[in-house]
């Protein structure tokens, strides 16, 4: 059991950041950019190439569903990463866990780029199995990365600016997404379709090694956060952080988990699902032709119309939307300081629920409607995602902050992100359009709204001197 205390010694109240603002910004931003880049190149590949390369004998629908099921494996792995890295982050410090998580993500991603594909009966089993294993390791790494990066930013923030500093790691999500998809666009436009499917898809995975080297260099130069060092000096390091979190802070874990639900569902519907829906054939004839060119059987009973955009065109539209994701992530920091975390998340949850209700009408308005849909959706994403790097850590005291925030963040990924793309594709096929998908999003937003409505705001919570 951990040592307990209400406050650290008076001498521990000194709040001078140990790392410069520039170093904090760069280290928290580059780390999450790399992590999310690695994560998103898989998300994009899971739509564009993996169904054909790893599940070639399945029908078009089952191949996509199988690819999304493997995509979801990482979300099941993320709580494992939260438990593992949270434990060592609260016992050994933030720096060592940030370096380890980046290494695991980088190696796993690089090896995905080296995998064989399902070209014969043996590889039809071996290749997907190896993909699942590496995808699981990606999830473990991301399960530890986010919380460490959030603490790096917020524990080094000046007073009254935690939410603003907390947007630095959050910006890694839109930047990583843009980098990943720009690279896929370059590869798919500069190479023939045969070249892209043969080896071009591997390049984004292999190039991640360069970014990891840069990220490791920056993180190895960090100084441990003052918050953790004060916990060590006061002798209140938790012996079993996970036990303390669930025994003493179970309510905070539950509230934090549900607070992230709408964020996760929204993002993976806006990216993985919309890429599938947006590039799916609009007519049965087009679907039959696409299946024929891919050498797959076409089953008219499985056909449900999509939007019919070319793959590259829709990736560009997604990138336009993600630019607004970045802009509103930056704006959310000052808003969260001015309004408080609770009020901002309540307001944006209401807006997300309303957005889910107009999902299909916007998508039915042609290209202008699709662009408006993407801009609105990603703007809401930035507004709800930005404050979370301050909101979740503020729910937990210093000596279990890494574990608590990581567990809440990643448990939410299991119930929010893991099933989102799979469920959305199923609802699309059941309903024949995206109406049910929008209602699914609205339900997630209402659940988040209820949790946050009955919680307290954390803006004025003491950060440096509270422990379990």
From TrEMBL:
Entry annotated with the keyword Membrane: yes
InterPro entries the record matches: MFS_dom (IPR020846), MFS_sugar_transport-like (IPR005828), MFS_trans_sf (IPR036259), Sugar_transporter_CS (IPR005829)
Chain segments annotated as transmembrane: 24-43, 63-85, 97-118, 130-152, 164-187, 199-220, 252-270, 314-332, 344-363, 369-392, 404-428, 434-454
Places the protein is found: Cell membrane
CDD domains hit by this protein: MFS_ShiA_like
Any single Pfam family the record assigns to this protein: Sugar_tr
Gene Ontology CC annotation, any one: plasma membrane
Entry keyword Cell membrane: yes
Gene3D superfamilies registered for this protein in UniProt: MFS general substrate transporter like domains
Topology of this chain in the membrane: Multi-pass membrane protein
Keywords recorded for this protein, A-Z: Cell membrane, Membrane, Transmembrane, Transmembrane helix, Transport
GO MF annotations in UniProt: transmembrane transporter activity
Domain Major facilitator superfamily (MFS) profile: 24-459
Listed PANTHER family: INNER MEMBRANE METABOLITE TRANSPORT PROTEIN YHJE, SHIKIMATE TRANSPORTER
Identification of the protein by name: MFS family permease
Organism: Falsarthrobacter nasiphocae
């Amino acid at each position: 059991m951990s040592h307990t205390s209400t406050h650290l010694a008076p001498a521990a109240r000194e709040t001078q950041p140990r790392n410069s603002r520039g170093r904090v910004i760069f280290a928290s931003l580059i780390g999450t950019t790399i992590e999310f880049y690695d994560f998103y190149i898989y998300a994009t590949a899971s739509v564009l190439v993996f169904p054909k390369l790893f599940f070639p004998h399945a029908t078009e629908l089952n191949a996509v569903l199988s690819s999304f099921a493997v995509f979801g494996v990482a979300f099941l792995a993320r709580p494992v990463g939260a438990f593992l890295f949270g434990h060592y982050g609260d016992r050994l410090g933030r720096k060592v866990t940030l370096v380890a998580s980046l290494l695991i993500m980088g190696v796993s991603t690089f090896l995905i780029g080296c995998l064989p594909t399902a070209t014969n009966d043996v590889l039809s089993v071996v290749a997907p199995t190896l993909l699942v294993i590496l995808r699981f390791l990606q999830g473990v790494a991301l399960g530890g990365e986010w919380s460490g990066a959030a603490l790096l930013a917020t524990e080094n923030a000046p007073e009254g600016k935690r939410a603003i500093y907390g947007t630095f790691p959050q910006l890694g999500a839109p930047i990583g997404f843009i980098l990943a998809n720009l690279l896929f666009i370059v590869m798919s436009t500069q190479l023939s379709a045969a070249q892209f499917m043969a080896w071009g898809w591997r390049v984004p995975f292999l190039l991640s090694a360069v970014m990891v080297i840069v990220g490791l260099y920056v993180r190895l130069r960090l100084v441990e956060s003052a918050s953790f060092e004060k916990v060590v000096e006061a002798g209140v390091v938790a012996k079993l952080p996970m036990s303390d979190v669930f025994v003493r802070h179970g309510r905070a874990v539950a509230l934090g988990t549900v607070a992230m639900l709408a964020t996760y569902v929204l993002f993976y519907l806006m990216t993985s699902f919309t890429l599938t829906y947006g590039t799916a054939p609009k007519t049965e004839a087009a679907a039959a032709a696409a299946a024929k060119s891919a050498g797959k059987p076409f089953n008219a009973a499985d056909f449900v119309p999509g939007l019919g955009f070319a793959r590259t065109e829709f990736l560009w539209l997604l990138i336009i939307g993600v630019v607004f994701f970045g802009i509103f992530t930056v704006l959310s920091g000052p808003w969260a300081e001015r309004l408080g975390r609770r009020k901002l998340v309540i307001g944006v949850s209401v807006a997300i629920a309303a957005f889910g209700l107009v999902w299909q009408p916007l998508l039915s308005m042609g290209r202008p409607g699709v662009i408006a849909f993407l801009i609105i959706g990603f703007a809401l994403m930035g507004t709800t995602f930005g404050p979370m790097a301050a909101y979740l850590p503020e729910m937990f005291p210093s000596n279990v902050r890494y574990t608590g925030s990581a567990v809440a963040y990643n448990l939410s990924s299991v119930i929010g992100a893991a099933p989102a793309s799979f469920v959305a594709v199923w609802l699309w096929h059941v309903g024949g359009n995206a109406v049910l998908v929008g209602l699914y999003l609205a339900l997630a937003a209402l659940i988040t709204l209820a949790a946050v409505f009955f919680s307290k705001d954390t803006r004025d919570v003491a950060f440096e001197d509270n422990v379990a």
